[in-house]
UniProtKB/TrEMBL annotation:
One GO CC annotation: cell outer membrane
Chief site of localization: membrane
Stated name of the protein: Putative outer membrane starch-binding protein
Subcellular location: Cell outer membrane
Residues of the SusD-like N-terminal domain: 23-224
Matching InterPro entries: SusD-like_N, SusD_RagB_dom, TPR-like_helical_dom_sf
Domain RagB/SusD residues, every copy: 269-556
Stated family: Belongs to the SusD family.
Gene3D superfamilies: 1.25.40.390
Amino acid sequence: MKNIKYLLTLLMLSVIGFSCEDDFLDKYPEDQLSSATFWKDENDAKASLVSVYDALQPPTDQNPYRGCASWASLGVLADITPIGFERQSHRLRPVGDGVHSGSNIYLSTAWTLGYRGVVRANDFLTHIDDIEFSGSNSDQVKNAMKGEAMFLRAMNYYWLVELFGDVPLFTHVPTVDDAATPRSPKSEVLNLIKEDLAFAVANLPRRANAETGRATKGAAMALQVKTALYETDWDTAAIVSEAIMELGDYNLVSDYGDVISLENENNEEVIFSVQHVFLNDAEPGSYVEKLYANASSASSGWSFIQPTLWFVDQFERIIQNPQEGIDYVNEGGLNSSGEPKISNEIYEYFEGRDPRMDYTILRPGSHFIDLNDNDIVYPHELNGPNHSFTGLHMRKYVVPGSGKSVDWDSPLDYIIFRYADILLCHAEAVAMRDGVANVSQEVLDKTINKVRGRASELLPKYTAGNITMNDIYRERICELGFEGWTYFDMKRSGMIEINNGYQVQGLKVIANETVEFNPDGIGNVRIFNPSVHYVWPIPSDEIQKSSNALVQNPGYPQ
């Protein structure tokens, strides 16, 4: 079988359509795909499975929210935590501000895309046993393919439960008669997730025996860990995360900057990622870069998601006096008054911190390779430095230089699970199960200290009895910031309640003049009501289509 990237490319313009009603047509034209003409042989089964992977991609219908709601762009959820801010006020920012309702189109898109993946997986699982496969190991091949579909269905249901709580549960392809299906308790959805993942773990190949980009035993186990953390089943999370570590299939990349890199995709740290290809704006590239990048990048970025000073403050200062011990040069130039455009106060605020900060964001004094391959200094040498309301831009998931990325078509894969995440999940699970004061030095050294050591040898190691849960959660923010997990992490830990009364803090960038701290804050003072905002509202249009069979989450209008 071909590499999943290649197969996704072939599928790009081939949408597999299925009738919603059995009696919709008496006859099916032989030159058109339908459930009656498609499921004929094992090639159809393979194509259907690729379509389930394709559901992880953002939609390709020119929807203006296409890049904002899918597994391929979960990093945008950083906007609704203290680490991020959204430039445009009508999309996710109301969710972060705590003033959203079921009419928010982002929430509707997230719901739709989650069920798109579920329905495609259900269709595959409904038909796969009707297809005869050749070869003596046909049952093994079928079970592995089922494992892939079940993993993908479980991942989509996990996302839906994390965001919305109780959701309708389907294990078949729904018809119009299912429109009034009520929400199932999340416990029932989680039971299906766990059943699917148990089958996937038992039947999926190890990394070494799998095609690049496809689900593996390790990927299914990683989702088992995430599901256990969601349920606060610390023992299961600890056991399964340790089992992943003992597999020996994954390792930390030696340089943090190489983890998310076009030149180093599918590296030894990646457990599962959404695969993208570069077809010069012909799909199916990633939209993440468009949302993250600045206007000087080849993708002509929107600076849609912006880091905050709260995020910067999570990175420890490992060189106390930045002007000593490093090559400290103010490269910002002078303004019209002959003063530094970037004051030493601003420089010193950022310099000397955990180096993962500079691999994640662009801040005053950062260097960036623009679309013409020029080495420019942020912010004043960038196009549109004022596009960022916080005065900061993203570096992570932005492809530097020319010729590698274009508008809406980044080739850079979006990582869902990676090994450093699993190590930190293990540290958290053991600490919550046994008590953080009882975590052994052995556990610390093979998890959080290993992750920190990769970032910098100057980051001090944690010692047994001298670590807190806040230390573990802060490490997750620094290591995984803007990779899609911070929102879920902060909900699980309760840190998301920081949002109540929080106002984003940032910098003020005056074009060709100065960069200074913004004392007034940015945007609205946020609201987070713990009795309401741990889940999102059910989309209003879904409630309407169900004839009110779907009941709204408490605190939101029906």
